[in-house]
């Protein structure tokens, strides 16, 4: 049986072959122009899926890197502000130490008071610091609310909240980008423990510190702060005669808790301090007090408090700045301010260290993202980018094949049976 191929069929096959070769050449030219081997899913379906996955991961990394940039800006703002607070507290402490100097003239103390007011105002500005977007960094989640404002009585009220703001810098990594102002400025650990001293000058009608007293509270703690009450401690030095008739001086103390006298004229041991536990109550709290610089006749009140407000402490220094240098209560209050400032400085240093630790974590995460981004780009390039050497060789071969097909088509097109009749 003879298979016959019509002229039209042959012409159609040759035309299709030319178009296919021309298409291959056009595709190679397009790849050389774009530098990409895979531009559509049809170019390489398997590689196209992988490339799309790489692109999604790179987009996610870009989002995380943007979050890292924002987090770093906020953290740097906080770190700078806290460093400024540390400097402010250090300068304030030096001024208060100068005020304790009894040789200062009244006009000098007035000048120191003015400087303390300026330092307090500077501290307020730092507490109301903003980031590059204008958000208050120490206001918790109330970032558009000014956290600290001065009340009519001179106290500083906190208007933010106690919440933390976070930034997601990786799939399962969130970092703090804010510190609540109350945690930073109004909840500073009390350097004495669980009680704060309240000093007053002794008068004919009121207990307090005697002239020349240097009474200083070293520590005041309780094993159950929830049940803590106001404490008053009084000291009195008496003559004690031993069995041999020798007379010695002994410092005694009386203890009043919650308005009730619980200890009267007990011997005070400077090394052991005061330790009290209510014998009438099972499992009662243990109270431990330690003092220094006691003078006979001194009396001190202790109020329950585990934290301090650094603004209140500085205001106390301002209030006592111009009190007479002969007032032992004024000097004791200033000494208490110094203790508060020391505690505040340590607290700020701890908070600054925490911010620094977060910044290091953010930097490490950024390095990981950059490394992973480089790896993904290399992998994507290996699948997507064009091998120019191979592409040029392919183009030359395709051009030669196309030219050969064109020549064959031209010759075949001229064939006819009429040429043999």
From TrEMBL:
Keywords: Bacterial flagellum, Cell projection, Cilium, Coiled coil, Flagellum, Secreted. GO terms for biological process: bacterial-type flagellum-dependent cell motility. Belongs to the bacterial flagellin family. The lineage of its organism: Bacteria, Pseudomonadati, Pseudomonadota, Gammaproteobacteria, Vibrionales. Residues 61-88 form a coiled coil. Gene3D superfamilies: f41 fragment of flagellin, N-terminal domain (1.20.1330.10). GO terms for cellular component: bacterial-type flagellum hook; extracellular region. Residues 341-421 form the Flagellin C-terminal domain. It comes from the Bacteria. Signal peptide: none annotated. Its main location: other. One of its GO terms (molecular function) is structural molecule activity. This is Flagellar hook-associated protein 3. It comes from Photobacterium aquimaris. It is found in: Bacterial flagellum; Secreted. PANTHER family: FLAGELLAR HOOK-ASSOCIATED PROTEIN 3, FLAGELLIN. NCBIfam families: flagell_flgL (TIGR02550). It holds the Pfam family Flagellin_N. Residues 5-142 form the Flagellin N-terminal domain.
């Amino acid at each position: 049986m003879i298979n016959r191929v019509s002229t039209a069929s042959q012409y159609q096959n040759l035309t299709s072959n030319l178009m296919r070769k021309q298409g291959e050449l056009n595709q190679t030219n397009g790849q050389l122009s774009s530098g990409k081997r895979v531009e559509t899913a049809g170019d390489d379906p398997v590689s196209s899926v992988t490339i799309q996955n790489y692109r999604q991961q790179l987009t996610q990394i870009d989002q995380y890197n943007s979050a890292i940039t924002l987090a770093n800006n906020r953290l740097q703002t906080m770190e700078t502000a806290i460093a400024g607070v540390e400097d402010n507290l250090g300068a304030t402490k030096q001024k208060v130490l100068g005020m304790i100097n009894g040789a200062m003239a009244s006009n000098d103390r007035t000048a120191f008071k003015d400087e303390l007011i300026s330092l307090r105002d500077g501290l307020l500005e730092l507490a109301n610091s903003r980031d590059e977007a204008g958000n208050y960094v120490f206001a918790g989640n109330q970032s558009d609310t000014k956290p600290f404002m001065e009340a009519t009585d001179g106290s500083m009220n906190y208007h933010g909240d106690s919440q933390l703001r976070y930034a997601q810098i990786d799939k399962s990594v969130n970092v703090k980008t804010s510190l609540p102002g109350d945690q930073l400025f109004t909840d500073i650990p009390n350097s004495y423990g669980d009680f704060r001293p309240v000093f007053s000058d002794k008068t004919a009608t009121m207990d307090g510190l005697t002239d020349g007293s240097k009474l200083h509270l070293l520590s005041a703690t309780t094993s159950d702060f929830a049940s803590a009450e106001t404490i008053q401690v009084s000291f009195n030095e008496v003559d004690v005669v031993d069995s041999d008739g020798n007379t010695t001086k002994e410092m005694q103390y009386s203890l009043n808790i919650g308005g009730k006298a619980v200890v009267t004229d007990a011997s005070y041991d400077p090394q052991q301090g005061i330790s009290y536990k209510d014998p009438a109550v099972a499992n009662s709290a243990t109270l431990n007090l330690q003092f220094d610089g006691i003078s006979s006749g001194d009396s001190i009140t202790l109020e329950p408090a585990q934290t301090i407000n650094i603004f209140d402490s500085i205001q106390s220094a301002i209030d006592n700045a111009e009190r007479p240098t002969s007032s032992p209560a004024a000097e004791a209050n200033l000494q208490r301010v110094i203790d508060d400032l020391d505690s505040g400085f340590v607290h700020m240093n701890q908070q600054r260290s925490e911010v620094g630790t977060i910044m290091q974590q953010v930097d490490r995460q950024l390095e990981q993202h950059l490394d992973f981004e480089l790896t993904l780009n290399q992998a994507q390039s290996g699948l997507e980018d064009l091998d120019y050497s191979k592409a040029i060789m392919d183009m030359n071969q395709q051009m030669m094949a196309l030219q050969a097909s064109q020549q064959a088509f031209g010759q075949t097109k001229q064939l006819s049976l009429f040429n043999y009749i």
